[in-house]
Amino acid sequence: AEARSAGASIGLVPTMGALHEGHGSLIRAACAENDYVVVSNFVNPTQFGPNEDLDAYPRDLAGDCRLAREIGAQAVFAPAVEEMYPSGTSATWVEVEGRLTSILCARSRPGHFRGVTTVVAKLFNIVGPCRAYFGQKDGQQAQVAARMVRDLFMPVEIRIMPIVREADGLALSSRNAYLNPEERTAALILSTALKGAEELMANGERNRGRIISFIVEEIEKEPLGSLDYAEIYSFPDLEELPETIEGSIFIAVALKFGRARLIDNLVVNL
Ligand code: AMP
Fold it and tell me: Worst-scoring range by mean pLDDT, 1-10, 172-181, 215-224, 255-264?
């Protein structure tokens, strides 16, 4: 509040902690564009399903504070569950309805996006940011947050930053910590399948079904992973596309490896 009333611009980077260079890139962007940067660190129970990895989710608050400080953030906000949900749960929910929260990750994670938008709305009200930073890594989530802000006239600019990858192409994720060495090698299939699809399109392929079949076949070559989805929509609205695709398109994949569920995506302009 002091920073705000002194006229400082406030940037918020919402995270679930176990920070890596993907989060680092968001914090860096926030520091470049704002006077005062808050990194929130909260493993939000309401966005996890009953059989998901809430308890196992990696946590490292001390390391997170070190990284946030090194990059230049002014504050880490790491509330307890009881602070964010004082009565045990929330009687008020913020929910983006419709296709944006019915496709892709919503199918295998019912209620997930309602948990995300509710906690992000709470964080916006607590921190009062001018800008909030999301990663394209969770491309659907970023669009859901943008839609919430648009629909509710929240005075926050949503900034979406590119996916940060390991040298071999695997998108950084706190959940990569779940992978054993064999699964880590196998997880490369997500980014290589997307790269292969990109090459197909660079060579002129425009048929949606054929591009999806290519990705599915590539992923099924990897026996350690089981495919959750491989889908193509328009970008950024995530609308259905006709069989022949053009314009800005979003290709998203999700794959399960043991207890880890990994996602990746690609935006291409055709
Ligand atoms: P999480 O802590 O996984 O909930 O992520 C917090 C924010 O960091 C989300 O907006 C993510 O999209 C973003 N993020 C996570 N991994 C990456 C990555 N590899 N590249 C860019 N942004 C990321």
Answer: 255-264
Q: Which of 12, 13, 15, when mutated, tests ligand 1's pocket best, judged by the most ligand atoms within 8 Å of its CB?
A: 15
Distance of CA 150 to the CA centre of its chain: 19
CB burial readout 103-140, b (16+ within 10 A) else e: bbbbeebebbbbbbbbbbbbbbeebebbbbbbbbbbbb
The residues annotated with a catalytic role in the active site are 23
Question: DSSP secondary structure string, 60-75?
Answer: -HHHHHHHHHHHT-SE
Beta-strand pair 260-269/248-257: antiparallel
Other CB atoms within a 10 A radius of the CB of residue 26 amount to 28
pLDDT band at residue 106 using 50, 70 and 90 as cut-offs? very high
Single out the residue of 203, 204, 213, 220 nearest to residue 251, CA to CA.
213
**Positive or negative CA dihedral for 113, 119, 121, 127?**
negative
- Nearest-angstrom CA–CA distance, 216 and 230: 7
User: What is the best residue among 137, 143, 149 to mutate for testing ligand 1's pocket, by most ligand atoms within 8 Å of CB?
Assistant: 137
Instruction: Work out the average pLDDT over 54-59.
Output: 96
Task: Write the residue with the smallest CA distance to atom 22 of ligand 1.
Answer: 135
Structure tokens at 4: 């705000």
pLDDT band at 258 (very low <50, low <70, confident <90, very high): confident
- Ligand 1 contact, 135 CB (< 6 A): yes
